[in-house]
């Protein structure tokens, strides 16, 4: 089982996004995600790929869980 950290999108480009979690900013690839992403959206991340868009409520729950 893999644990995915929720990242918040802070910038959107054509094939990548910049996202932040816990003060860390990453450039994420969009090759495997089908959802349209906008600034403020949350995604789960695996190996520098945005893999799943999640709600802010889901992100909050995961952030609380991981502390």
Any key phrases for this structure?
single chain; about 70 residues; alpha+beta; SH3 type barrels; 5-stranded antiparallel β-sheet; about 15% helix; globular; Hydrogenase_HupF/HypC; HypC/HybG/HupF family hydrogenase formation chaperone
Q: Can you walk me through this structure?
A:
The protein has 67 residues and is of the alpha+beta class. Helix content is 16%, strand content 46%. The chain has one helix and five strands. Strands 3-2-1-4-5 form a five-stranded antiparallel beta sheet, covered by helices on one side. Belongs to the HupF/HypC family.
- The CATH class, by name, is Mainly Beta
Q: What is the overall number of helices? A: 1
Given the helix and strand composition, which structural class is it? alpha+beta
Largest sheet: 5 strands, antiparallel
What is the distance, rounded to the nearest whole angstrom, between the alpha carbons of the first and last residues?
A: 19 Å
Please indicate the percent range of residues in DSSP E strands (runs of 2 or more): over 45%
Strand order of the largest sheet: 3-2-1-4-5
Q: Name the helicity range.
A: 10-25%
**Total number of strands:** 5
């Amino acid at each position: 089982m893999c644990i995915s950290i929720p990242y918040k999108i802070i910038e959107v480009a054509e094939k990548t996004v910049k996202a932040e979690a816990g003060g860390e900013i990453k450039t994420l690839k969009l090759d495997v995600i089908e959802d349209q992403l906008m600034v403020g959206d949350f995604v789960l991340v695996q190996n520098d790929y945005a893999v799943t868009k999640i709600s802010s409520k889901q992100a909050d729950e995961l952030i609380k869980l991981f502390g």
